[in-house]
Records
---
Amino acid sequence: MAEAQIVLKGVGKTFVRGLQRTTALAGVDIEIARGAFVAVVGPSGCGKSTLLRLVSGLVMPSEGSVRVAGEPVVGPRADTGIVFQKATLVDWRDILGNVLLQLEMRGIDGPEARERARTLLTAVGLGGFENRYPHELSGGMQQRAAIARGLVHQPGMLLMDEPFGALDALTREQMRLDLEALWLRERMTVFFITHSIDEAVLLADRVIVMSQRPGTVDHVFDVDLPRPRGLAARNDPRFAALTDAITRIFLSRGVLDEQRLAL
């Protein structure tokens, strides 16, 4: 097995607001190899986004430990890229400027930096749109720019919190194909949060299934589908078997109601 990039041991997180305590995660153990693509799927409110924020160093665990590249996470790391559900681009900068902002904040500038930004924009399908402004682009195109921004500083790890959740079905499918191609090229570690069982299986090497709150690891599935996984991947019997197995876990836990699904 490759060297572990992300290791969580006995991780719990409780949020306190006044007298109210909400335990989002409890007893989470996860180990992710360097260069792996791992997806996390689970019901709303199970702590998926909290898990990503713990790995990123944006919040600290209430118990247990989080380590990245062998070091304890004590705050945001320079070797991490993050893509959220909304692109959160800066309105007054063009698309190239938005991508370069990531580098400027790190004190990185020069021809090589600009060339990498342009190369990434081309790789995500935005070649020729460098001088456009966010309001001139569709939601899917804005999210492509956000992915380029998350990768421009060449992070060893990319954290993605439901990055395709607000997109229409066709755009989402194309983004899935493009993200896989980008990962095959860059080979960074990807920690991908999603509500979509199909999306998790189509993208990941491993799928972590979370329980209801307080979230913990319910099951882990290895995905044995050849890459690249094009549009035909859904026709593979292994895809059907895995999505069915995950769906049945949610049915057995009461997360999904089969009678309501049949209506």
Note: The first helix runs from residue 48 to 56.
---
Amino acid sequence: MSEPFIKPFTKAEMDAMRATTRDEEGLKRRFWDKLRRVAGRIPFAEDLVAAFYCATDPKTPSRVKLILLGAIAYFVLPLDAVSDLLPLLGFADDAAVLAAAISQVASSITEEHRAMAREALGEAVSKAG
């Protein structure tokens, strides 16, 4: 079975992700700020937040954390293959990157991570509204 084609990141995207993931507190802050702004417009919000909780869980293996933090960094970065301001298409690239990351580490995202995500999304949406 062949692997599906996934567009490689540009050098600028890779440099930005490295810088973003080195500053974990900054990444967390930017993640929650952006999520509050867009949570109601993205259908993959629960998966994204569950991935965040998995990536920040001390029990999660380093390899899994790295994969998920890369996808989360792509979500928060202002550099995007498709601008988040475009209706319908704006978050398509973010969803694709997240889906690719989750497909690699799905067994590490627990029901506990998902429950925390549902709770956090309820709070984020109520604060944004």
Note: The radius of gyration is 14 Å.
---
Amino acid sequence: MATIGTPVYLKVGARSQIAKNNYTDLVDFVLQGVSGDPGFQVFFLAFFSIFYTMVVTGNTLIFMAISLNPSLHTLMYFFLANLALMDIACTSTVLPKLLKGLVGKGSHISYKGCLTQIFFISWFLGAELMLLTAMAYDRYVAICRPLHYSMLMSRPVCVLLAGTVWAISAINSSVNTGLLVRLHFCGHNQIRHFFCELPALLLLPCSPTTLNNIMTVLADVFIGVVNFLFTMISYSFIIASILRIHSAEGKRRASSTCSAHLMVVTFYYSAIIYTYVQPGSGSSMENGKVVSLLYTTVGPILNPLIYSLRNKDVKVALGKVFPCVC
């Protein structure tokens, strides 16, 4: 068995082809982790264990409360239930492996495991960004076109929107992960991150990554920038509509409906766009660790609090389903 931190090699394909290319491909990679200081291991282990428990518990409670309470079977809560699932899946893709490394079970990850982690993290993050856009459109219709809400945001339309979000993000993730298969990793196997993330992995190949970089930027522009613009356009109409409301109470209620969503949108888009558009330098990758913690750990904790636990209807539903919670 190879020692952690030592490159491990695997011959791929016919021997003649290997001789021709004069390289072998890596079997596994070594994740650098959150910090190289062993003195912080116990702290980070406790920190991430608590955070992972909070993410899974909070979002599971929200999902079950929405699913089991008929009064919450509305379109807004349908999107929130999808968001809760995405948060659980996103965090579960990253933190269990990180915790395993922190308890000394090994910081290495197999080649296939690394690609699998990249596929799922890209899928769930992309789906979450597009879902936030769908939620912004839902708020736009509810505030700016309330008389047409039942027609424009019918249940079939919402199911179609949610399904499209999951499908498009899965296709995007499949393309970017598939393009990684064509690359050859034949030298340095240290990933300067605490999980396999596309920008960090693209620093390692010994074959050209031009096509991968182009597709990554295109995906980021489509899923990140374009969706962000659609969200901002929706909110420009929402704000204009709120300003036309004469009642102070009406303005307050309309603003409270959208302020939480706008805050989460800004948080997620700024973090993820920074990560995937940043130049691949050492300092930027160190900063990227902090940013990645925001959208893989902090965001999934805040979402239940921002969207649901402050909501009176959700509190009542939680009290009915789980009497000991509320």
Note: The CA atoms of residues 75 and 290 lie 34 Å apart.
---
Amino acid sequence: MNILEVGAKIKQMRKKNKMSQDDLATQINLTKSHISKIENGKATPSLATLSKIAEIFDVPMAWFVIQDQFDGISIVSKKERNETVETNELGYQYELLANKSYMSNINPSIVTVHNGAENLAPYTHDNDEFIYVISGSITLKYDNKFYTLEEGDSAYFSGKKEHIFINNSEENSKVLTIYVED
């Protein structure tokens, strides 16, 4: 384990989560000074400390200590992309396209928009969202306006305004969705 790399990864996650050294120190019962030493490679975190930090940032502890075999790249082949979230209350099914959401502020997935989900309430979230219709056709209800998007069409919008996808096709529609965190 290279303590400089571990410290750099901790700092990366702390900054990504808009957290100060003092905030992190308070959550894991350390001093700000000790967090600074860890981030600068002047102190090695204990496994207990590393475990707490991993839990706070919702990443596997191994991410801090194991060299990524892809050197900063996440490749997910179609045959390995079987971690599909079950259909949710909106009538959507999500297929995660990257298994390293802790590496970046974007989260790509393929959303399958099922038939019969026309009377659902729009929702909001804190992220910007980019969508690209892979197949089929959807109506994007956004801020009480309706937009028809066909295969090949795309949209970029703030998730802070109410929105929902409604399928316009006889078959299920597929939409590439990328959430962009601030």
Note: Residues 70 and 101 are 15 Å apart (CA to CA).
